[in-house]
Design a protein that fits this description.
- The protein is of the alpha/beta class and 180 residues long.
- The chain has a single domain (22-151), classed as Rossmann fold, CATH 3.40.50.
- It contains four helices and nine strands, in the order βαβαβββαββββα.
- Strand 2, helix 2 (45-52) and strand 3 form a beta-alpha-beta unit.
- The longest helix is centred in the N-terminal third of the chain and has 18 residues, at 12-29.
- The protein is globular.
- The structure holds inosinic acid.
- Inosinic acid binds at residues 43, 68, 98-106, 152-154, 158.
Length: 180
């Protein structure tokens, strides 16, 4: 375990099994019409790369970078699209892949934006779902691997100040790491 980690929440093996199971579900659900899979960078990059290899369909892949700002209580309109899609999504199923659903501020805005572009459907696959977090909307993850409590987690793509993304497990950091 990394010296900065306090406790491991999900091991490499648990993540592998959960991603595999999720890939199977998505494969079954989209069998008739493969979706465009949209990864929200940067946090989703490891989850996305593992997940697409567990989806047995010929999916298009695209990425977005979206930065949300403003108060925690408003959502749409307060998102800045730093990198937009290269793909025309009109009439297509879209599956957004996100690392963690917290307030849902970013994804609420992104989902609205993609719906406005006449996507056939827009669904969300989140690696982690902070179920007790205060949400800015009623947006929910259509698919998720794990639930987490209201604590800050890192690893498997998730960072603290751009660090720890490469950890193979998901963990909670020691409090003193945040304190300076
Ligand atoms: P939301 O818009 O509040 O749902 O924020 C989602 C984004 O905040 C995620 O995509 C992460 O980049 C970041 N985030 C929220 N909680 C955590 C955490 O516990 N660890 C690392 N990043 C987090």
């Amino acid at each position: 375990m990394h010296a900065d980690a306090e406790r491991i929440l999900f091991s490499e093996e648990e993540i592998k099994n959960a991603v595999k199971a999720l890939g199977k579900r998505i494969t079954e659900d989209y069998m008739d019409e493969p979706p465009i899979i949209v990864g929200i960078l940067k946090g989703s990059f490891i989850f996305m790369s593992d997940l697409v290899r567990e989806i047995g369909l010929n999916c298009d892949i695209d990425f977005m970078i979206a930065k949300s700002y403003g108060s925690a209580t408003v959502s749409s309109g307060t998102v800045n699209i730093v990198k937009d899609l290269d793909t025309d999504i009109s009439g297509r199923h879209v599956l957004i892949v996100e690392d963690i659903l917290d307030t849902a501020r970013t994804l609420t805005a992104v989902k609205d934006l993609l719906m406005d572009r006449s996507a056939k459907s827009v669904k969300i696959a989140a690696l982690l779902d902070k179920v007790t977090a205060e949400r800015v909307s009623d947006l929910k993850a259509d698919y998720r691997c794990f639930e987490v409590g209201n604590e800050f987690v890192v690893g498997y793509g998730l960072d603290f100040a751009e660090k720890y993304r490469g950890l193979k497990y998901i963990c909670v950091l020691r409090p003193e790491i945040y304190e300076h």
